[in-house]
Amino acid sequence: MSENQNLLAEQRRALILDDVRKRGGVRVNELTRKLSVSDMTIRRDLDALARQGVIEKVHGGAVPVVEASTHEPGFEAKSTLELSAKEDIARAAAAMAAPGSAIALSGGTTTFALARHLLEVPGLTVVTNSVRVADVFHGAQRPTSAGGARAGAGAATVVLTGGVRTPSDSLVGPVADRAIGSLHFDVLFLGVHGISVEAGLSTPNLAEAETNRRFVRAARRVVVVADHTKWGTVGLSSFAALDEVDAFVTDAGLPVAARQEIEEHLPGLVVAGGPPGE
């Protein structure tokens, strides 16, 4: 059987993961026929997905990993996943930030990637509850060894909310909630643990859910930035319905069927990078 050159490894693995989640399990021989690749290629794909912790390999195939709705991975664990997808999303989302506007960035590894692209947008006022995001802007403003500012530095005024730190390096709780509640943003770029039709936007952290609610209320426009693996995931606490979202920026790993379902409930779907999903 010849290798299918039309699908990149990440796209193929996204399709496999979608199959596993929808059907509750897959077999290697089924995947080789469906994707027109070798048995060895499928086994490598399953090994990669298992290392990411999103599937469990079983004899002859794989089944989904069932995580508790309260499970919250740390920033470092999440930062190694879907790197190219997050870069595609960040690049597309950065184009939605107008020079001189007031924006908010929630915590998360995708908003962290977005922050690096926003360094090139002049005159921003950035409100964030993410220690990591604040560090991106702070690092850009530090002088270089030559004594000057780094490229793009000085463009943004950054407000860090304060609060109690979560495993994902977000600041949440009453201090963060009060700070956010007194402000108004042109655009909120919101990372999420999970997004679905039934549960809307959700997180496993109750305090973070309340902080995110404050963000959503304070924003004129809400843009969710999340890779395709977040679709269909549900955390312990929902903090916004899909009709509160103005745009969802995701990556090309999202299957066509999921895109059609999202477009029925959201006014704006942006699929960043790569060819259309299958």
From TrEMBL:
Give the highest taxon in the source lineage. Bacteria
* Domain HTH deoR-type: residue ranges: 9-64
Report the Pfam families cross-referenced here: DeoRC (PF00455), HTH_DeoR (PF08220)
- Name the chain's protein: DeoR/GlpR family DNA-binding transcription regulator
What taxonomic ancestry is recorded?
Bacteria, Bacillati, Actinomycetota, Actinomycetes, Kitasatosporales
Q: Name one GO molecular function term.
A: DNA binding
Keywords from the named record: DNA-binding, Transcription, Transcription regulation
Listed PANTHER family:
AGA OPERON TRANSCRIPTIONAL REPRESSOR-RELATED (PTHR30363:SF44), HTH-TYPE TRANSCRIPTIONAL REGULATOR SRLR-RELATED (PTHR30363)
